Every structure is written in structure tokens, then in C-alpha cells.
Please model this.
Amino acid sequence: MEKEVIDGVTMKRALTRITYEIIEQNAQLDDLVLVGIKTRGIYLAQRIAQRLTQLEGRQVPVGELDITLYRDDHHQPGPNDPEVHGVSLPVSIENRHVVLIDDVLFTGRTARAALDALLSQGRPQRISLAVLVDRGHRELPIRADFVGKNIPTSLDEQIKVAVMEHDGRDGIYIQKNS
Amino acid sequence: MTARYLVLETGQVFTGVAFGAAQAAVTGELVFTTGMTGYQESLTDPSFCGQLIMFTYPLIGNCGINRDDSEAIDPTCAGVVVREVARLASNWRQRQPLADFLRQKEIPGISEVDTRELTKLIRQAGTLKARLVDELPTPAQIEAISATPLARNQVAQVATTKAYPSPGKGYNIAVIDFGLKHSILRQLAARDCDVIVLPATTTAAELLALAPDGVLLSNGPGDPQDVPAALPLIRGIQGKIPLMGICLGHQLFALANGATTFKMKFGHRGGNHPVREIATGRIDFTSQNHGFAVDPASLAGTDLLVTHEELNDQTIEGLRHRRYPAFSVQFHPDATPGPHDATHLFDEFIEMITATKRA
Model:
């Protein structure tokens, strides 16, 4: 059973708010690189980049990380950490401020894999993490700098973020594993 | 039916019929508002303090005055100009007809004047000074209208002089009252905020001592440059406490950060103003009531980012501080009267406070 917890309009507003917060934290947008994680994080990164372009009249580079893992619905505690399959960065991240963007922050293992992948590409001056949803249940000492929505969940629930570009609709849904 | 005269500073005299206060002898800035509904909210909006409100909608008063929709305890507008005032008020909530309300509050009204013609005049010439009187004025009296200085410092006439609480269980919000509309308090109450309303003369030190979670700069009447005491207040708290500004509060936020404001030709008053959110291109229809605006040319070199603009004339309708959690809007997210498209900005304010606490 799937239930909408955040509608598309509110989800877009959360992205706009994250954009403003990124501006607030970055006096120099010249140093900024956005990096989206796998499917939906990439679309969210692109949308934040579009908002920055509208507001500041400049392009911010958007990179992509392909990280595959057990899917959330197959989540099992254990050693099967996510694996990085591809890194695509349009610019060097050396000495820049990288904002890593994902749809859902859960155990933190994807974020950790992303950090490893980024650090293997250079030494950014700073890496921040922006997520649309923080659902809790961290297994690693990782926290997000920019959070769209805090949605407390139980472990037998799933959070699904739908983006227009990939799912044909915007919204955040919660589903109970049965 | 008693005759009453609306005399413009240009010398034009509009003859109409008196309603409301028995006697009329007021001079004020004649402004028009385009709302088709919500005359009670407009009449009681403190931002109209000292102004003659003209409604472009031709029939005003048909649902009377009710207990629930006022934006202040007492209306502070100087007078009311309508095409036709409803002879019969009909609504399940109404308690008295509009004319009775205005008579009780001693505010003069004039009906049976050509409000369309007057609106055209204002749109061409800009807002005009005008006088509502019961006797045809002499040429010398007409001459005197343009020499009459407009009311200044209206904030001091409408804002509270004493702090008062509006308790809740959520975030503690300090509202600086420059001429607060009740609907702002209603919106905060709907989010369970624990509100304290403070006088416009509050200092930054006094405010910081209260340690609120957020500060809201309210709407209010008149020229933002008449409220210089607010500027050190804003500079003293921004960056320390999340800030939201509405209308006059928005203009003061801009002034405090080095921008300038100017008097608009005839302003924006009504519930049909399209505003574009620059980040997304989304259009919201907004309720507005402002005769001054932030000068876009003055933003260069400031820390302010334009977030919203009016679609018709590109007036700045929203700003955000680049380094601090602080934003402001020229329109009324509290609506009343007008569309509720922008009420989510109060949610954004709450989210901003939450994000600031997390950081």
C-alpha cells in the first residue's frame, strides 16, 4: 500500500529551499559543483542547478555518480555495501565545494560510498550532503547539511521519491513492506 | 440622501451621496483597490491608514460586516469611495450593514461616484490627494488640498505600543508590529507558533534578550523611510535569528541591507497580482497593498537576492539575504482579502527556523 506523504508542489518547494540554503552557505558560487547520486539524485541535482541559474544567472556544473546497492526494499543489515559503478564529473573537483545530492538519506552507506568515489577523484575543499528526504536509521556517522523533509519511518517502511523526469510525476510516497 | 463631494487636488469635483460618518472633512491619498471581494478586510487593514480607499468593484457592502474577518479592531482609513453601496446586506455571518459599521467607526463614505473614471485618472496621474467634504469647496479650499501634507508616521498611529503575547506550543516567534494585520497572527496560530507581538520601537538588544526562534516584520502603512528605528533593529538581529518580512517589513528589510525604496505611481492594491517565483518560474496570484517598492537598481552591491517579481510591471516582490536565513515578500502571503496561493511562505519560514536549528 502506497501513501503520498509529500505532494509534488511541496516537493518542488523543498528543492527551492535547499537551493536558497546552498546560496546562503556559498559566498562564491564559482567554486560550487553539484553531484547527483544515481537515478533520482541526478534529476534533483539538475533541478537545483536550474534554480541556481534562474536566480543567479550562472551555470553550476552537475556531475553524476552511479552507485548500485541492494534496493531499499531488500535492505538487510550486513556487509553488502553499495558499489560505485561510474563517476562522471564535468570539472575537476580539486579545491571546490561539492554538494552531493540524493533523494533519500537512510543508512548512510550510499553517501559513504559516494564520499569514497569523490575523494578518489581529487581533494575538494569541502563536501556537503543535500537530501530531499531524511528518513533516519543511520548506520554510519553521516548527516545531511541540507534536508528537504525529515520523514521519520520504521524499518519495515519504504520511502519512494518520484520525479517527473523518470517517474512521470513528482511526490514522496511511503509504503509498508508486507 | 445627503450630498457629499470628493474633491481632487487637480480641482475636479465628484458629487456623490454620503454614507457612513455623518460628517466628512478628511484629506488623504486617494488609492484604488481592485479586489472583487473582501472589503471588510481592506477597510480594516492598517496599511490603509490615512488613505481614502476607492473600490473598483462597483457594488460594495452586499454581505455586510461580520465578526470574523476584520484585520484590526478599528479601521484607520480616512474614507471610503464606492460606486454603489449595497442597501441590503445579506450573509449568514453578517452582523451589521457596511454603512452602519462606518457610521459607528466615524469613517465617512461616498457612493454614486464614477469610480471607473476616478481609477483612470489615478492610473494616468498617479495617486492623488483628495478631500471628502459635505459642502462644495471654494477655489481657495481646492487650492489648499494640494498644499496639505500627507500623513507621515502612520506606523505610530496603528502599531501597538505595548508587547502582548499570543501563546502557542510551537516555535517562539517575535512579530514586530508596524501595523499588523490579524491574519498574520492567524497564520502563525495555525502553525501553533508561540507569538509575542512587539512595538515597532523595539531595539535589537531587547529582541535578542527574548531569544525568539524567529522574527517576523509585519506589514504596515506609509513610507518605509518614516520608520528609521527599524533599520538598526533588523541589522542587529539578521544572521542571529531567522527573519521573515511582509510588505512594509519587506521594504524595511531592504533598506536595512542598503537598498532604497521609491513611491510607486499608483501602487498595487488588490487580490489579482501575479507574482513569479524566479527560481522555478511558478506564478502565484497574490494579495497586495503597497504604494512603495524596492528600487531594483539599488540592489547592486547589496547582499540581497531577488526571489519574486510582479509579472505585469516587474516590481520586486520578494528578496532573500545571500548570507543569512532571512527573506521578505512585498505581497501578503496571509492573503485576506485575496488568494491563498502564497500561504505556504509561512511554512517556509517555519522550515527555515528548523533548518537553522539543525545547522
